[in-house]
Amino acid sequence: MAAREFIRWFSDLSMDDIELVGGKNASLGEMVSSLKAEGVRVPDGFAITTDAYRLVLEENGLDELIERELEAMHRGEKTLEEVGRTIRVDIRSKPLPRRLEEAIVEAYAELSRRSGEEHAAVAVRSSATAEDLPDASFAGQQDTFLNIHGVEQLLEAVRRCFASLYTDRAISYRDDRGFEHSRVSLSVGVQEMVLADRAGAGVMFTLDTETGFDGVVFITAAFGLGETVVQGMTNPDEYYVFKPLIGATGKLPIIRRILGAKEKRMIFATGHSVRTQVVDTRRADRERFVLSDDEIIHLARWAERIEAHYSARRGQPTPMDIEWAKDGESQRLFIVQARPETVHSTRSKRTFQTYHMKETGTVLVSGRAVGEAIVSGKVCRIDDQEEMSRFEDGRILVTQMTDPNWGPIMKRASGIVTDRGGRTCHAAIVARELGVPAVVGTGTATEVLEDGAEVTVSTAEGEVGKVYGGKLAFDVEETSIEEIPSTRTGIMMNVANPAVAFRSCQIPNDGVGLARVEFVIANAIQAHPLALIHYDKLEDAEDRDAIDRLVVGFTSRRDFFVENLAEGIGTIAAAFHPRDVIVRLSDFKSNEYASLIGGQQFEPREENPMIGLRGASRYYNDRFRPAFDLECEALCRVRQRMGLTNVKIMIPFCRTPEEGAKVIEILEAAGLKRGREGLEIYVMCELPSNVILAKEFAELFDGFSIGSNDLTQLILGVDRDSELVAHVFDERNEAVKRAISELIASAKRFNRKVGICGQAPSDFPDFVSFLIEEGIDSISVNPDTALKVRQQVHEMEQASCTGAARE
């Protein structure tokens, strides 16, 4: 067996061995020794210890050289580039001590024997003693070499790994973080290669990387080796899995799938000097997901187990950053790396900042948003690493993609914009650690954004990051969680965009009083549901072409609609779980439906769509009924397949109890029976008839939600779309308030829940006071006003208690 002073097999290691084998190898050993019994599969391998690295330095007199060169850099006599190059060349050029070389050769022979190959293909990874710590990621600071075959290649890769402790980026990073160079050592991991070039690989986190929401496992995937994902060469698929339901029997809690472009894939090369190559991904592969549902759940379950193990070991919650790969030959999944996540796990949970645009402008480019902030500045477009010296502090860095060599200028940037990359690429990871907003995967930033131009970068408007032309005004609001009071009255939220749900749910709340599905239909689906159902009858060729582009990656047009709607609802429901999420069924008017792709062919022309074919009357309409069936199917998937039974249903614009009964009957036939698995069905109170016939509606529904916008319109006879009579529209009109007061009293009398989800509470503090005085159960407001309303309600409730005590 190989000399134990230089070689340790992963199965003999744990996190207690960081000083001996570095963070990466210690983590691999921890998983092999502690999680194998739980089914977590890690490729076999061994670590070359830090004792070996120190032996190389000592026997070749390299300690003095390194110290001398670094001192010259710190005195300003040499540049970072000069010093790094000198140290690396010297380390690579020195031979490995004979007893170390023999130990490596012996261990490699044993690994090859175990794998059943004469010369096993291995990945050779650097593992520093200051790497993968909970408070410093050191992501990509040292080198990795893939598809290494034979003793000669292995020994050369080991020398290059030792030298990579002094890459420019590693030297700079340690200086910035205050790590003393001489106290950091390097180990090398030699791990059996997973043949992911024939399958796929990616990265997963046990939280949402943008908001820190810890209720999900976030998985990225691309075809080929995982380096394309880590280095941002390609835009990967993305999957979100809801943690609390991963092990639930018969449930599939995949709440979101996003088909990535996956433009490139890294495969093994056949040449001697080049071990890997990047090629274009075939179109057929680009248009399908990398992972099956079973594989997504399999990885998520592993991620959950890894997180639980590390959290227990450290005695505190430890979100994880995990790399995975699928072997194209065996079709088995493997974990190839795992480290503590270093951004949200170290960020203060006591306060949070919220950014808001105060004005709008022209969007020059857009991509995936990284972080949640806004910044203005001048563009510095860097097309090549040779141009880095001209970067100026505080500029917006614009480039095709970044790798660890870009670290020295990324830390000086106020914002980062790239052509390529997804949310787990190098640029995204570093931007989060630095707290810098980034927009990645724009496709055209280096073509569109001119060097020196003033722009505003916004990543505070959901998952789409935007780069606006010019310097635009914005606000920053900081809130202390400790200062937010509790209330007896439920303070719920109105949520339309699933992309902001993970952020909004972290604001103290009592659930979602209004989840609007129209946003998902208009933005994620875009096509009229009947145009999808009756695709063969579409008269407009452009509509057919547009639908063909939309449904790429889906098994059918029907499935495209149902999956997108289910995942939009599911994302919101998961974010606020286990609190109630009241989903209002689609409430487009005919003119709004007509604006969807293919909609003109299926919608009537109405003089006043606001009081036309909308809400309940649409659902049982013979012509629209097939479209409503898709909506019901999506809700079934959320509640029954995903397991998110905190979703409740709300029927809008229900003119009569007879209409309500018809819709309830349709819902039951679709598998959405009131009372089954706790399903509650609410009705919007937005017509005078809902107030007048409150008793009859209460017999059908579990509760009421007041839609103050439409109720005001119909009580005052004001078209709220008309600017000519806009001055008359006011929810605080006495007639409207009397109707609301009567409805609240009726709901109490008939033992039904009653809340409000209209705009008025978000806009008018005096209206909130009125609602509290009337005894409403809950108030649902926009996320940006939730804290303000909660504070006001708390003060009113306190004053009411004080007044009652005096009496």
CATH architecture of the largest domain: 2-Layer Sandwich
Percentage beta strand: 15-25%
Structural class: alpha/beta
Numbering strands along the chain, what is their spatial order in the largest sheet?
23-24-25-26-27-28-29-30
CATH topology of the largest domain: Dna Ligase, domain 1
CATH superfamily of the largest domain: ATP-grasp fold, A domain
Helix content: 25-40%
CATH level-1 class of the largest domain = Alpha Beta
Number of separate strands:
30
Global geometry: elongated
The N- and C-terminal alpha carbons lie at a distance of 87 Å
Main sheet record = 8 strands, parallel, barrel
The total domain count is: 5
Instruction: Please tally the helical runs, counting DSSP H or I stretches of 4 or more residues.
Output: 29
What does this 3D model show about the protein?
With 807 residues, the protein is an alpha/beta fold. It has 5 domains: 7-193, 2-Layer Sandwich (Dna Ligase, domain 1), CATH 3.30.1490; 197-344, D-amino Acid Aminotransferase, Chain A, domain 1, CATH 3.30.470; 351-479, 3-Layer(bba) Sandwich (Glucose Oxidase, domain 1), CATH 3.50.30; 517-679, Phosphoenolpyruvate-binding domains (TIM Barrel, Alpha-Beta Barrel), CATH 3.20.20.60; 685-807, Phosphoenolpyruvate-binding domains (TIM Barrel, Alpha-Beta Barrel). 37% of the residues lie in helices and 20% in strands. The protein has 29 helices and 30 strands. The chain has an 8-stranded parallel barrel with strand order 23-24-25-26-27-28-29-30, surrounded by 6 helices. A 7-stranded mixed beta barrel has the order 15-19-18-17-16-20-21. A 6-stranded antiparallel sheet has the order 9-8-7-6-12-13. Strand 20 and strand 21 (464-469) form a beta hairpin. Helix 3 runs antiparallel to helix 4 (80-93), helix 15 (518-525) packs across helix 18 and helix 18 (557-576) crosses helix 21. The longest helix has 22 residues, at 293-314. The protein is elongated and about 95 Å long.
